[in-house]
Amino acid sequence: MKKLYVLLILSLVSLLSYSQNTRIKDKNSIGWYALNAGLKLDDKWSLAGDFQWRRINIISDPQQNLFKLAVNRLVFQGVNIRAGVALAESYNYGDIPVNTFGKQFTEHRLFEMLLLNNKFGIVESNHRFMLEQRWVGRYSDASLEKEDEYVYTNRFRYMYRAQIPLKGREISSKTPYAAVYDEVLIGFGKNVNENVFDQNRFGLLLGYRFSPKVRIEGGFLSQIAQLGREVGGRNVFQHNTGLILSTNLSF
Fold it and tell me: Looking at the predicted structure, is the pLDDT value of residue 195 above 80?
């Protein structure tokens, strides 16, 4: 019986080792800098827009530029729905490029979002459910200087965020706070290749609310992203860690 246990343990260790060996890790240092703005139109409707400047080696090299514009509606207290468009420009970075030819490419998106907010004691909780329809630029030949086709894919995203004030019982004006969040991104549909698991993003943040109109926050960010293609028969995972800093404006 002991020999059987030892054999099972050795088999499990070998299986886990093989699973790890079939993966290629590409590690990068990142810096994500964002400006988010909201404009309230009335008690129900508002506009939201943001620009994200994503960098490699903290700030020196480009990773991605992302623009979003959306319309938001308050269904009732704590429940919002949002729909919008996005434009992303991704660059060649890391040891293994995102696309086969290592070229810059454009992505167009539509997205729909459900936002749920609630509070338990001093803890504010946020749930974000998102669907994305993506048209990702692709090159059919390495000699091309611009994408000649766009591949359609779908993606589902879920993010949970919790935040607490570091002074008092609620996050009001002139209040520092701490936040943590995790988001998982899942690809689905006929054109999804290797990356059904697309990404996971984890953040630890410190923030300060100056007023109802201005809030800033920053901290640690971890991004694990799987490429949609194999290299030498092995899956490629980016392990990107670094800084995130955002300014949030409400009008």
Answer: no
